[in-house]
Specification:
The protein is 36% helix and 21% strand. With 450 residues, the protein is of the alpha+beta class. The protein has 2 domains: 3-106, Ubiquitin-like (UB roll) (Roll); 117-449, Glutamine synthetase/guanido kinase, catalytic domain (Creatine Kinase, Chain A, domain 2, 2-Layer Sandwich), CATH 3.30.590.10. Strands 7, 8, 9, 10, 11, 12, 13, 14, 15, 16 and 17 form an 11-stranded mixed β-sheet that branches. Strands 1, 2, 3, 4, 5 and 6 form a 6-stranded mixed β-sheet that branches. The radius of gyration is 21 Å and the shape is globular. The mean pLDDT is 95.
Length: 450
Amino acid sequence: MDIDGMIRQAQSSGVELVRFLYCDAGNMIRGKASHIAALDDHARHGIGLVVAMAAFSMAETLAPVPGLGPVGEVRLTPDPETFTVLPYSPREARVICDLRTLAGELWEAAPRTFLRRMEERAAEAGFTVEAAFEYEFYLARQTETGYEPWDDSVCFGSAGMDAAAPIVLEILSALVAQGFEPRQYYPELGPGQQELSVRHVPALRAADTCIAVRETVRAIAARHGAVASFAPKPFPDQAGSGMHVHLSLWHDDHNLLYDPTGELGISRLGRSFVAGILAHMPALLALTCPSVNSYSRLGPNRWSSAYPVWGPDNREACVRVPSLFGRSVAEHERSTNLEIKAVDGSANPYLALGGLIAAGLDGIERGLQPPEPFAVNPGELSAAELNARGLQPYPSTLEGVLRVFEQDQRLLDALGAQLAEVVLAVRRAECDAFAGLPPEEVALRHFARY
């Protein structure tokens, strides 16, 4: 769809407001709305946005970044391919925006610009990255003291499906109405915790889909008197929520990850991609698990990954190689993918996917190969066994991760100087905002934001 088509669809659908949305480095979905009477002008020329907005944290503090203050402006410019009428609010529509300079160039401080560049680099390397997120979230009721889980269901429990059915069925119908293809749904480990997945698409569209899923889930939950939270650890005494990423590499309808003769069925190219991701962990955590709350979830024996390892169907590994479906070569090729476990719902999806692609491309460019796969839980190995393999756990705090991130020059170069500075400043501002607070208060504040 082009701009003209977007305007015609909005006008013919009875839409009164169009939300021009973007996602900032703190993973807050923000934007402005255009009234239908002004849509033609805003669609063609954008909506003004002060540059300072790029430096806001999820704690709603303005991080100190040179040049990102009250002076200067960029434009919210819509990507018409993302336009959709909201089935849960049919007089409104949503469109995902790029941020552009006044000269019309994509703004380097915008996360979506970063993912666009990484897609271009992947294309230069000869493939397209397809991705899908697994969305874990809690449904809860707000109380005078905070939040309580929607139900007391068990993992994969049918009773949990019953308790959440009115909300979940409306969510799934709304996703289909917006052109997405849900794949699975089930209650997860925590009481009131849900998980759903959507079909894989090219990386930029996967990140756009992530924004739409979060918006849809939260809006429909609210219609039922519930609160939905994608926070990594919304309840300190319950299971954390991830947002695992599944990746595959494609060229001319062939999955370049697949090689039945390769280790774990992964091609040499694919193994180099894996090696790049492992080599840049834990610096990548600044993009994939980037909140203070993330480090209440990450750790050994939490099924979230605590070491930079890979392995077959290993849900404690950073990179899991899922077992294949079907019997034919075509089915095996189609189902080959990599699951990245160390990703959660506080991650900006453009930064997370862009960082993973940058790391994987670095592994390919340097011809890296991953270490021996782990067919065991690394959390059950002794310190001596881990040392023999040269393994160290991830830092246990966001501050520790940021210290590693600022030393990873290849990742910083991929982000670009301004965006890297924004990420560091925003996340450090959040460290300051939550310093000294008890885990219950940190969880409460993240629950509301994500």
